[in-house]
Amino acid sequence: MSLDTLRETLPAYAKDLSLNLSSLAGETTLSDQQKWGCFLASAHAVGQPAVVSAVQAEATAAGLSEEAATAAKAAAAIMGMNNVYYRALHLISNPEYRTLPARLRMNVIANPGVEKADFELWCTAVSAVNGCGMCLDTHEAELKKHGVPALNIQAALRIAAVVNAVSRVLQAEATAAA
């Protein structure tokens, strides 16, 4: 399934999402690797099958390398864990938990297999999907250290927001039809 086919499956009330999906697919602020990595990481973060399939097909057609696709999926996987853990630390009133070592393996963050800034951008997108402010702050600061402009970070956040919304609409429609 292509993104165009996916857009056609969206209900009329989600027309803005369809238009945003189309415009973000043509986004030029990010490199193709950054853009399609954001799409793929965000789709995997939400996990809606039709969206994952369409984004994977589009990313592959756009030339996203196997290494970059694997790294984008790794960003979704590691942030799926980290976003829960660090969001919990932020939400728990007892500050003692923030002094304890995480004791969670996160080796992929140090060696993602792609440019560090690209991986950080994908982690930022996934952190937006998963709603972890602590992780958003950490990854945004790391992106700034790498000289990534605010417009690029915003583009990644916009992709995450639209992929999330499209996924949720399609899931809700599937549930209503069942």
Overall structural class, as computed from helix and strand content, comes to mainly alpha
Q: What is the oligomer described by this structure?
A: single chain
CATH class designation: Mainly Alpha
> How can the largest sheet be summarized?
none
Low-confidence stretches: none
End-to-end separation in angstroms reads 22 Å
**CATH homologous superfamily - what is it?**
AhpD-like
Using the alpha-carbon principal axes, give the shape.
globular
State the order of secondary-structure elements, H for helix, E for strand.
HHHHHHHHHH
The overall pLDDT, averaged over residues, is: 96
**CATH architecture tag:** Up-down Bundle
**Can you tell me the number of structural domains?**
1
The CATH topology: AhpD-like
Percent of residues in helices comes to over 70%
Instruction: Work out the strand percent.
Output: under 5%
Rg estimate, integer Å: 16 Å
The tally of strands reads 0
Enzyme class: oxidoreductase
Disulfide bonds: 132-135
EC number: 1.11.1.28
Catalytic activity: N(6)-[(R)-dihydrolipoyl]-L-lysyl-[lipoyl-carrier protein] + a hydroperoxide = N(6)-[(R)-lipoyl]-L-lysyl-[lipoyl-carrier protein] + an alcohol + H2O
